[in-house]
Design a protein that fits this description.
Radius of gyration: 17 Å
Strand content: under 5%
Number of strands: 0
Largest sheet: none
């Protein structure tokens, strides 16, 4: 921020770079989580994710698809320099998935499992808010 209290071009560049790093990290996480839910056989998945027995396998697979699509939506529109409006929507969708996962773990009283989805939900909301108005992707 300059002395006048206004953001100059370098502040926007730093903010944009920081958001890109966050988007890539979040996309990587959701690619790993979505791939696990979508491609790992049900028996192996139940051993890796003890809570997997609490929901139908079809729902687990659907969540995996949504996580993969959301991860793509975090980075591909910016890389393609087209349909930038998809990035905040993808982040909002991932925030919804993570918030519901948080509530799922609260309902099962799995307290150690709550911080990760809660943090992902909060950061996804931040990305959605930032890319929707504060630092939108440019064509």
């Amino acid at each position: 921020m300059s002395c006048s209290g206004r953001f100059d071009g370098s502040d926007r560049t730093v903010r944009n770079l920081a958001l890109w790093v966050g988007q890539i990290v979040m996309a990587g996480f959701f690619v790993m989580a979505g791939s696990l839910k979508l491609f790992v056989p049900a028996d192996d998945l139940a051993r890796r994710m003890p809570y997997a027995d609490g929901i139908p396998m079809e729902l687990t697979r659907f969540i995996g698809v949504c996580e993969l699509l959301g991860a793509a939506g975090l980075v591909l529109p910016g890389l393609a320099r087209d349909a930038a409006w998809l990035t905040p929507l993808a982040a909002a969708g991932l925030a919804s998935i993570a918030a519901l996962a948080t509530l799922f773990h609260v309902g099962r009283e799995e307290w150690a499992s709550i911080p990760l989805p809660l943090g992902l939900a909060m950061y996804s909301v931040f990305i959605a808010w930032s890319r929707a108005g504060l630092a939108p992707l440019k064509r």
